[in-house]
Design a protein that fits this description.
With 512 residues, the chain is an alpha/beta fold. It is built from 16 helices and 20 strands. Helix 1 runs parallel beside helix 9 and helix 7 crosses helix 8. The site of flavin-adenine dinucleotide has 42 residues, from helix 1, helix 10, strand 15 and helix 15.
Length: 512
């Protein structure tokens, strides 16, 4: 087998697949090496117990970039789209939120929410403009960088003086202060706080939670959908696009090292002892894994290696999958509501209190939960008449005190089930099997440092011009021939394909 390639991509996460497809379309001979047996990284569908499948990490689609869809001609089929968020209340008086409208609150809250959503989506559009291009380098005289920076200034100015000031005031702030200033209904405040903190090691009172809220909205203004066949169908479609463009994808092939000779990449060695040559190695693995493990600190400049090793990337989101012999009862829900996004975040204080123990390495006794029943509209996931529940559960800190032993996991599962039982009293009767993935499991099964949703925390000090760290924000590492193309690079995580597309474009434009 020929072992020489124009580019080798380490990892077939959705970003690696996007990147490889675009490079191959530009005429490059590309090899993708993936450690796991399946493509897709954290965007996969897998069977967790006989006959029951589920999206193993990411379960809701809301950030896939239109540019990626267009470039790769994706026609992703959806089982549910433009879902309503139902914020559960123990008394059955739930709230329903959708695209700026909310039912179940006072007129004042409804009006305030419309205005809030309008302003936030406008601000998120400003961020989105930067999602699909590499961030400009600061302090250079490069024309393109100056143009991009100029455009940022102009876009800000276009908001108008007052809105510009408001944007600058809000961007580093916390979501808690904003929601308590504006709204009365605790469920509404809780729901907004949950959207701001999901996937992060942040609570509603943490700075940067307006930024994370805007990041989420920048996807599709908060509209969510469930792909038919689970998230794996998105990755399979991307793999198909990559293979059709000529990419060779090898699964079950973990890369041991990126080979560096005389300060530049020359190829990769696999764990199985194979060697592949390429002067371009693009890593879909997270930045810490890429620099500290695959390259090795000795090949990186000391300051750069230190910055990477100090990246904050400790996940806090666990994933619970339940096989159910029937749908649990939820007071106040109609049958069709089980196709929607259901959340447990009853107040802004509940969300903050759920976060508090995580600061000290403890899991939450009252977790925040995002729930879907994807089998409700998709019979490929469970036997006829049976169901799967897919839930993201916060907070479950990666570095749990005493570690995520089997006993600690069993204890946390008990806590989650008793939280669910407050809203679904018969849930336990319906469970026939379960799988709980903690951030430690996610790290080992999906090879993401800290099991972190974004590969590295999404806060201003690790965002835009300095994501993941200063000196590597344009996908190119300060080691010739090595690039990043995953969630740890700009703009961040979520199933968006933006980092993969931007990396491919940055690489191709360098060659012009
Ligand atoms: C619990 C959880 C729930 C989430 N829910 C959502 C959601 O609902 N919606 C959403 O949009 N996002 C969600 N996310 C975030 C989203 O899943 C990720 O941000 C996104 O999948 C990252 O994609 P990626 O391609 O950049 O990286 P990854 O998906 O991490 O892919 C990287 C790939 O590289 C491979 N790899 C690593 N090291 C090596 C090596 N040495 N050799 C070979 N291969 C290697 C890995 O096996 C993996 O396949 C969630 C994340 C988590 C953890």
């Amino acid at each position: 087998m020929d072992n020489k390639y124009d580019a080798i991509v380490v990892g077939a996460g959705h970003n690696g697949l996007v990147c490889s497809a675009l490079l191959a379309r530009a005429g490059k001979k590309v090899l993708v090496l993936e450690a796991n047996e399946q493509v897709g990284g954290a965007a996969v569908t897998r069977e967790f117990t006989e006959g029951y499948s589920v999206s193993a990490c990411a379960h809701l689609l809301y950030q896939l970039q239109p540019e990626v869809r267009k470039d790769l001609k994706l026609v992703t089929r959806l089982a549910s789209e433009d879902m309503t968020t139902i914020a559960l209340s123990e008394d059955g008086k739930h709230l329903r939120l959708k695209a700026g409208s909310v039912e179940g609150v006072s007129e004042n809250d409804a009006e305030q929410y419309r205005a809030f959503h309008k302003r936030m989506t406008r601000f998120s559009d400003l961020l989105r403009k930067f999602f699909n291009k590499p961030p400009p380098r600061l302090g250079t005289k490069n024309f393109k960088d100056l143009m991009t920076l100029g455009q940022l200034g102009l876009d800000l100015r276009m908001l108008g003086k007052e809105e510009m000031q408001e944007f600058l005031r809000l961007i580093g702030m916390n979501i808690h202060d904003e929601v308590t200033e504006r709204f009365e209904h605790p469920l509404l405040k809780g729901a907004i706080c949950l959207d701001a903190v999901l996937g992060t090691h942040l609570g509603p009172r943490s700075p940067n939670t307006i930024l994370t809220y805007l990041y989420r909205l920048a996807g599709d203004h908060g509209r969510t959908s469930v792909p038919a066949g689970g998230m794996g169908s998105v990755s399979n479609e991307l793999a198909h696009a990559a293979r059709s463009a000529g990419v060779t994808i090898r699964t079950a092939t973990p890369v041991k090292r990126i080979v560096i000779s005389n300060g530049r990449a020359t190829g990769v060695d696999t764990e199985a002892g194979e060697h592949f040559e390429s002067l371009m190695v693009i890593s879909n693995a997270d930045p810490k894994t890429t620099v500290m493990k695959l390259i090795g600190a000795k090949h990186a400049e000391t300051g750069f290696a230190r910055r990477v090793s100090h990246l904050r990337a400790k996940g806090n989101a666990a994933k619970l999958h339940l096989a159910l012999d029937g749908l649990p009862t939820i007071e106040g829900l109609s049958k069709k509501d089980y196709a929607e996004r259901i959340i447990i975040a009853p107040t802004e204080h509940y969300v903050e209190r759920a976060f508090n123990p995580a600061k000290y390495g403890e899991s939450s006794p009252n977790p925040v939960i995002e729930i879907t029943f994807p089998s409700f509209r998709d019979e490929t996931l469970a036997p006829s008449g049976k169901h799967v529940m897919s839930a993201i559960v916060q907070y479950a800190p990666y570095d749990l005190k005493g570690a995520w032993t089997a006993a600690a996991k069993a204890e946390f599962l008990k806590v989650i089930l008793s939280t669910l039982a407050k809203y679904m009293p018969d849930i336990e009767q319906h469970i026939t099997a379960s799988e709980l993935l903690t951030p430690a499991d996610i790290e080992s099964e999906f090879h993401m440092s800290g099991g972190h949703w974004h590969h590295a925390e999404l806060t201003l000090d690790q965002f835009l011009f300095v994501r993941p760290v200063n000196g590597a924000a344009q996908y190119r590492l300060p080691i010739e021939g090595v690039y990043l193309c995953g969630a740890g690079a700009h703009p961040g995580g979520g199933v968006s394909g933006a980092a993969g597309r931007n990396a491919a474009r940055a690489i191709l434009s360098r060659e012009k």
